[in-house]
Amino acid sequence: MKDSLLTIINSLVSDESQVSINQIDGEKSVIFEVKVAESDMGKVIGKEGRIAKAIRTIMKALGAKEDKKVTIEFID
Asked: How far apart are CA 56 and CA 60, in angstroms?
């Protein structure tokens, strides 16, 4: 799942070297902490959070296949 998220984020940002994803595993849940460059944060979140919501939807669908609840946090 982390690789899928990394692919999605890298396709959105200008500076791929600043992208870092921290994965925190629980028994039934996974939390991804996504950090991108300050200038790319708007591209990842989108207008009114639409892109961020779409990313969360895709990742929740991938998590459902593995019976895990997926949470994504965008950190400045």
From this structure: 6
Q: Kindly state the average pLDDT of the residues 37-63.
A: 94
DSSP assignment letter at 14: S
Q: Mean of the pLDDT values across residues 44-73?
A: 94
Reading the block at residue 72, the tokens are 């994504």
Cα three-residue angle 56-62-63, rounded to 5 degrees: 85
* pLDDT tens profile 26-37: 999 999 999 999
Cβ atoms within 10 Å of 31's Cβ, excluding its own: 14
**Ordered domains of the chain (ranges, CATH):** 2-75 (3.30.300.20)
Evaluate whether 27 touches 65 at the Cβ level (below 8 Å): no
Is residue 66 classed as helix, strand or coil in its secondary structure?
coil
